[in-house]
Design goal:
With 178 residues, the chain is of the alpha+beta class. Helices cover 66% and strands 10% of the residues. It has two domains: 2-64, Alpha-Beta Plaits (2-Layer Sandwich), CATH 3.30.70; 71-170. It has five helices and four strands, in the order E-H-E-E-H-E-H-H-H. Strand 2 and strand 3 form a beta hairpin. The termini are far apart. This is ChrB N-terminal domain-containing protein.
Length: 178
């Protein structure tokens, strides 16, 4: 699907909202205000929402469903989509590394408290949500998805081990009412 839009310069919040909407579903910008997306139920739904938003703000939008690209163009587009996801997955992997380093530091400092467990649980939830968002827009199943999934599982294991150490330090068994 190719989407092209034009909206008035002011208010700029409309352009930002459109940009965020399209980026959140993995749009690949090929020119200013022209992007491309694989044709899925979600991209079609977003195209309808975008149409309403643009029309409500006195703009223009065209949504084109493309049956097939020239094979070299298709290969280029897939490579560009994959590059976008690679950047996102690398940022995610950095987040996982920071998470595991934080747990290691807390372990080395002996900060075995329930407060630390709660903080780390919240961070793990954030990492899981982040991974799902990237994975959802990974239309062409990047090799980075598998690596990122493995890293996320390692974060879960690190937190589980840390949580067990906290329960031991507090003289409880995990799951026991405190």
């Amino acid at each position: 699907m190719v989407i092209s839009y034009r909206v008035p310069a002011e208010p700029s919040t409309v352009r930002v909202k459109i940009w965020r909407m399209l980026k959140s579903i993995g749009a690949l910008y090929i020119q200013q205000s022209v992007c491309i997306l694989p044709l899925t139920m979600e991209t079609q739904k977003t195209a309808v929402q975008l149409q309403s938003l643009v029309n409500d703000n006195h703009g223009e939008v065209q949504s084109l469903q493309v049956e097939q690209f020239e094979s070299s163009t298709e290969a280029q587009l897939i490579a560009l989509f994959s590059e976008q996801r690679a950047v996102e997955y690398q940022e995610f992997l950095n987040g996982c590394s920071t998470f595991k380093q934080e747990i290691q530091t807390e372990t080395e400092l002996g900060k075995f408290t329930f407060h630390e467990v709660e903080e780390n649980e919240a961070e793990l939830v954030r990492l899981k949500r982040w991974y799902r968002k990237i994975w959802k827009r990974d239309f062409f199943q990047s090799e980075h998805a598998r690596i990122s999934q493995t890293e996320l599982e390692e974060c879960e294991i690190a937190l589980s081990n840390f949580t067990q150490r906290v329960y031991q330090a507090e003289g409880h068994t995990e799951g026991e009412l405190v």
